[in-house]
Design brief:
By secondary structure, this protein is mostly helical. It has 15 helices and five strands. The protein has a five-stranded mixed β-sheet with strand order 2-1-3-4-5, with helices on one face.
């Protein structure tokens, strides 16, 4: 519950009465109700009084509605102070109501709030030109199109900080603006267009079986993709060169005197990077990606990133915390920015040698979890990690150390 009070007496008008146009409108509203039930028109009459008075309800307007409907003043006051649709103090010509409930909050309402504070000022503040004021409100019922605002009687949805700022500028300049979604979405259908089944049987009265046919078509496509992936994998395996047979070292002659072990050089040689798993060729990568896509297609549509990854590979072993309390800067590996570093740390991956030790199951798992199958191999994370783990540098890590890679800062 919120405490709602009338505006200070200093700004209250002395009188209020419906103008001629609204008087005729009021008669049509009151006539909708049977004799003795005219009080049922209290909300529409208060709403019309608010519109006539520039978007807010003064005390005189509340009392005038009470007189018109033969109601005690206190009963009309109870209604006006209960419903937040009635503004009890002056608002701007463009009154912006920002939805701050959970869906909008999660989709960026806090960022929109900063735009409103920068361009308009604090909540309930009316700009000097009288054009704008704003207020954070509870759910406005457009959760699919979050984040959103209501400006006067219209909704403006799918907002970003840039589109909201432009919307305010255009309204202030008197330019025409687009009502509804601001990102090209049509009403509240899924982004990218409607995804309903395009089967005429759903609309001509013979819909029974339509869903089954679509399901079977999708299942057959997933099966075909899986079979093609298996064939491609076999072909790639057959085309791979055979590993050379190990060469047996010649035994030394019995009469040869034993050699003394070589002395260590005066200066220790640099530590060589640990060998990383060999990277598959492009044909094998494409075959693997097709296999991963087929496995994911067989999962429920709402499967989480972790469920998809579990279906195609093995989660790498993680640590509870970084060794000695200090993790490696994984952003020194090309392809790992701040976001992916955070996700890897959340999996318990803090050090280069952990990445260098991944095999195919771990690469498949992480690539799927991070939603870019094949990228780990194409950017050669394992070789980079092995070099860095051994204390060496790569061309990319040198650029990071110089601060020349914006995505690796912070």
């Amino acid at each position: 519950m919120s405490v709602r009070r009338l505006a200070p007496d200093a700004i209250q008008p002395a009188t209020f009465a419906f103008d001629a146009t609204n008087q005729a409108w009021v008669k049509t509203q009151v006539a909708k109700y049977p004799e003795g039930r005219q009080a049922s028109a209290v909300i529409p009459l208060l709403w019309q009084a608010q519109k006539q008075h520039g978007g807010w309800l003064p005390k005189a307007a509340i009392e005038h509605v009470a007189d018109v409907l033969s109601m005690p003043n206190i009963r009309v006051l109870e209604v006006a102070t209960f419903y937040t649709m009635f503004n009890l103090e002056p608002v701007g010509q463009h009154f912006i109501q920002l939805c701050g409930t959970v869906p909008c909050h999660c989709m960026g309402a806090e960022d929109l709030k900063k735009v409103l504070k920068d361009k308009i000022g604090a909540e309930r503040h009316v700009t000097a030109d009288g054009k704008f004021s704003w207020l954070e409100v509870e759910c406005l019922g457009a959760c699919t199109n979050a984040p959103m605002v209501q400006i006067n009687d219209d909704y403006y949805e799918d907002l970003t900080t840039e589109t909201l700022a432009k919307l305010i500028d255009d309204l202030g300049a008197g330019k025409p603006v687009k009502i509804g979604p601001q990102n090209g979405r049509k009403t509240s259908e899924p982004l990218g267009g409607a995804k309903t089944l395009q089967d005429a049987s759903l609309y001509d009265g013979s819909m029974v079986g339509g869903w089954k046919k679509d399901f079977e078509t999708r299942a057959a496509a997933a099966k075909k993709a899986k079979e093609e992936a298996a064939k491609a994998a076999e072909a790639a395996k057959a085309a791979a060169p055979a590993a050379p047979a190990p060469v047996k070292a010649a035994e030394p002659a019995k009469s040869a005197p034993a050699k003394e072990p070589a002395k260590a050089p005066a200066k220790a040689a640099a530590k060589k990077p640990a060998p990383a798993a060999s990277r598959p060729d492009e044909a094998a990568l494409k075959a693997e990606e097709a296999d991963i896509a087929a496995k994911i297609a067989a999962l429920p549509k709402d499967a989480s990133a972790e469920q998809k990854a579990d279906a195609v590979g093995a989660r790498p072993k993680g640590l509870k915390a970084a060794r000695k309390g200090a993790s490696d800067d994984l952003k020194r590996i090309k392809g790992i920015g701040k976001v992916n570093e955070g996700k890897l740390n959340a999996l318990g991956i803090f050090h280069f040698d952990q990445i260098a030790a991944w095999g195919r199951p771990e690469i498949r798992w992480v690539g799927t979890y991070l939603a870019f199958p094949g990228r780990i191999d194409r950017e050669d994370w394992l070789a980079q990690a092995a070099t860095l783990a051994a204390g060496g540098d790569t061309e990319f890590s040198k650029r990071v150390d110089k601060g020349a890679v914006p995505t690796s800062k912070g």
